[in-house]
Design brief:
By secondary structure, the protein is α+β, with helices and mostly antiparallel strands. The protein is built from 25 helices and 33 strands. It has a 7-stranded antiparallel β-sheet with strand order 3-5-6-7-8-4-11. A 7-stranded mixed β-sheet has the order 18-17-16-19-20-22-21, with helices on both faces. It has a 4-stranded antiparallel β-sheet with strand order 12-13-14-15. Helix 2 (14-47) crosses helix 3 (49-55), helix 6 (165-179) packs antiparallel against helix 7 and helix 14 crosses helix 16. The longest helix has 34 residues, at 14-47. The protein is elongated, with a radius of gyration of 41 Å.
């Protein structure tokens, strides 16, 4: 120690004392802490500290909630102690708060209640929860980070009700009780100058709302964790909160008070992150039509007509009016006497609600807009058959498909194989228009009651196996048309319905049930888009498998696809038909006037004289004849890419060489007279006036001008010659027939019964039987397999170009004659 340090200590001896005292104090302090902890722990074990704290008001209490299955669950909660209200903060004790200051702040209802608000006479039930508490996270729905959210907006409500904290609080309690939920506490605040905001804390989550008394509006939301839907509580909310306001109405000098109609808007959403298996099995999952079209749409009027579950499926029927877009139909306007400039034409309040049917959450049809869809699904296949007499419908429990089939007077019997009798009964009661045949002459009031109809309540795969799955089924009466009216293959959560699209034996049995020229038709979901991946990779993988099964079945002649845009699906609906015989192509590609004539002959008359078909006619069929571009695009994404996909359009890098008469500079060809060295006769031949590269297009303009004539038209011309007295009696017709036979050829599209006749300079191209001499050929070469695929939207879309366009098969030098093989189109 230095000298200076000693002097310092001598002057301040307390420094040493303080250091010594500090060391002793810390030790004593630590020892005291240890003893105190031990004593506290012992008291907690012996005395049960929760009871101790609760009994002596230390700010905590223990609440035991009874489990319905027995026992109890302890819930430890912080005790709500009385607190100063916002309007009392800063006030002088003993002095009343001025009213003007009171109004500036919110005030609380009976805020001194320690845990629950006084409900104005309504009892508070600190009750058991509506569900049993799980013992581990794997067994309890509520542990999932998900829930149900119900949002409700109401207007035209009574102002006094919307401004009454006690009445609103009572409505909360009633709602929670009806929902089977557990109310822990609620808090209501009145606002200046009017209005109330309330929140109720639930064991399951919360309920809250805000009111606007002057406007008569309340907005409410209820959120719960757990598996239970909140839709069942909606009628209770409407009843307890829907207190209508009155308005003064004076009519004929008499003034009365009338209650206004309460307008309710609501949406229901599945919130959070749900396990994959739960999403897959929940028909209200966010991928379902019912969820998207009804549950989550806040704007609009929605009324649940029926929600039930049959032994096989969930069935929901809703009445809906979209208040943003809905307008009265033409028929409604006429019935109500609207004038041309009547503003009611655009007022949704004069529109009839649509009644929509959902099966397992998937939209099926409606009572107003079903005609377009079911006419599109039924009549193309029925008219593709020349005489459909025996028809089978798989599914179709709503009756719409049956109704359309019975419009054909050729039909002698219809067999409906529907697994769900409850679906048929519900449709007859709640959607009677779908099976209404009362306006068709010769039919019963309800289509299901027609003597031609047999309804079999059985699983379709089982029924077809029992009737057409054995070798002796060849002796049974066959169907001319079988229509599969099941849920769409994509997104189908109904196991039995989904199997209809995946069971190869079922498909084989359907083919066994068809006549030799029979047709199988099915709806196959929504039409593809050009951005879709290959069928087997996307959402339509099940449809792709189904179509491949049909394409590869040995009894399939052709597969045709088409779509209908007016079906209320948001996207075009996709349809498919498969013909056992390619001859159905002739009916499929019939001209619109021919289809209209067959409609006139075949479709039954109506009692009121109105057309039985509202949507389908010859022009509609013309639209169906060519698949849309997306069908072709997705088809060509198959691996490996189908051969014909390389010929979806002319190659812009290739040159088109045309014959232009009168313009030698632009023309690539010239016509010259040549003497045949064998016959000595002169003929007109086509020569190249420029060098033509291999692969160039030959006389595209001329061949595109070819005309098409059907086999029936040619037969009619020949019959006219016979009627005229035989050969030589009708020279003009005979010459025309000869020209067709010389310069025409059969379409390469089998079964369509069409002939292409060249009218331009291309018919001067000499034919040769020596293939090596020819220097031009078909643009679309024969398929490498020797047979065109049964399904190809490429062939169906481009059949005319494939029937006419020519290319150079080798380099053609200037001055060479253009020659084609004799069997070019055979």
């Amino acid at each position: 120690m230095t000298e200076s340090s000693r002097r310092s200590l001598q002057r301040n001896p307390s420094i040493i004392d303080r250091k010594r005292r500090t060391t002793i104090d810390v030790r004593i302090f630590l020892a005291a802490i240890a003893v105190g902890m031990a004593v506290s722990f012992g008291l907690g074990v012996v005395l049960d500290i929760d009871d101790f704290l609760s009994a002596y008001g230390t700010g905590f209490y223990r609440r035991v909630i009874k489990d319905p299955k027995g026992g109890g669950i302890e819930v430890h909660q912080k005790r709500r102690l009385p607190t100063a209200h916002l309007h009392e903060l800063g006030a002088v004790p003993g002095e009343e708060v001025p009213q003007e200051e009171h109004d500036l702040y919110e005030h609380h209802v009976n805020y001194k209640s320690p845990s629950y608000e006084n409900l104005g006479g309504a009892a508070v039930d600190v009750a058991e929860p509506a569900f049993s508490e799980p013992t581990n996270s794997s067994s309890g729905e509520q542990y999932n980070p998900s829930g149900h959210h119900l949002i409700v907006d109401m207007k035209n409500l009574e102002a006094d009700f919307l401004n009454s904290e006690e009445r609103l609080a009572a409505a909360i309690v009633g709602t929670i009780a009806a929902a089977g939920l557990t109310l822990l506490s609620y808090h209501c605040h009145a606002l200046h100058p009017a209005g109330v905001s309330c929140v109720g804390v639930l064991l399951e989550s919360h309920i809250s709302f805000h009111t606007w008394p002057e406007e008569g509006v309340i907005t409410l939301d209820l959120f719960t964790c757990g598996p239970a839907l909140l839709l069942p509580v909606l009628p209770t909310i409407e009843r307890l909160f829907g207190v209508p306001r009155t308005k003064t109405v004076t009519k004929d000098g008499i003034t009365t008070e009338e209650k206004e109609e309460v307008v309710v808007q609501w949406s229901h959403e599945l919130r959070g992150f749900r396990p994959a298996h739960e999403r897959k099995n929940n028909y209200l999952d966010d991928s379902s039509d019912l969820y998207q079209d009804v549950m989550t749409r806040l704007h609009g009027l929605k009324k649940m007509v029926l929600s039930t579950k049959s032994p096989y499926q969930n069935i929901d029927i809703w009445e809906i009016i979209d208040t943003q877009w809905e307008t009265p139909s033409y028929q409604e306007g006429v019935k109500l006497g609207f004038t041309d400039d009547d503003p009611r034409w655009t007022d949704w309040r004069y529109a009839t609600p649509t009644r929509d049917l959902f099966i397992d959450g998937m939209y099926q049809t409606s009572n107003i807009e079903d005609d377009e869809f079911h006419e599109a699904m039924v009549h193309p296949s029925m008219f593709a058959h020349t005489n459909p007499t025996h028809v089978a419908i798989i599914g179709g429990g709503d009756g719409s498909t049956l109704r359309e089939v019975l419009k054909h007077n050729t039909v002698e019997s219809v067999t409906v194989i529907e697994i769900d009798k409850m679906m048929v009964d519900i449709a007859r009661e709640y959607l009677p228009a779908l099976s209404d045949c009362s306006n068709f002459i010769g039919r019963t009031s309800n289509c299901f009651d027609d003597e031609k109809v047999t309804v079999v309540y059985e699983e379709a795969r089982k029924w077809f196996y029992e009737h057409f799955g054995s070798e002796d089924s060849s002796e049974k009466e066959k169907f001319d048309v079988v229509i599969l009216d099941a849920l769409d293959p994509a997104g189908n959560k109904n196991k039995q319905s989904a199997m209809l699209f995946m069971d190869e034996q079922f498909l084989a049995n359907i083919y066994n049930s068809l006549s030799e020229d029979g047709i199988f038709a099915a709806k196959v979901g929504l039409a593809p888009s050009i951005v879709d991946p290959p069928g087997h990779m996307g959402l339509q993988a099940r449809r792709e498998k189904f179509m491949l099964m049909i394409e590869q079945h040995p009894s399939t002649g052709i597969v045709l696809v088409y779509e209908e845009n007016h079906c209320s699906f948001g996207q075009p609906a996709a349809m498919l038909l498969a013909c056992k015989d390619v001859s159905c192509r002739k009916e499929w590609y019939a001209e619109s006037d021919d289809v209209d004539y067959r409609i006139y002959e075949r479709i039954v008359d109506t009692k009121d004289g109105a057309p039985a078909l509202l949507h389908y006619d010859g022009s509609t069929q013309k639209f169906y004849q060519h698949p849309s571009k997306p069908w072709e695009t997705v088809y060509c994404r198959r691996e490996p890419m189908p051969f014909e996909c390389a010929y979806r359009g002319l190659d812009k890098n290739k040159v088109i060489h045309d014959l232009i008469v009168g313009d030698e500079e632009k023309s690539s060809f010239s016509l010259e007279t040549v003497k045949d060295e064998y016959t000595g006769k002169n003929y007109t031949a086509l020569f190249a006036t420029v060098d033509i590269d291999k692969g160039s297009y030959i006389m595209a303009d001329d061949v595109a001008a070819s005309f098409i004539i059907g086999d029936e038209s040619i037969d009619n011309l020949k019959n006219n010659v016979k009627v005229s007295g035989g050969p030589g009696k009708a020279p003009v017709i005979e010459d025309f027939i000869a020209f067709i036979e010389e310069h025409g050829h059969k379409s390469k599209t089998k079964g369509n019964g069409q002939n292409i006749v060249e009218m331009g300079g291309s018919h001067y191209i000499r034919k040769t039987s020596d293939a090596s001499e020819a220097n031009i050929g078909r643009w679309m070469p024969p398929h490498p397999s020797g047979k065109e695929p049964t399904y190809s939207p490429v062939y169906e879309r481009h059949r005319l170009p494939f029937d006419v366009f020519l290319v150079a098969t080798k380099d053609i030098k200037k001055g060479e004659e253009v020659i084609r093989p004799e069997n070019l189109w055979s």
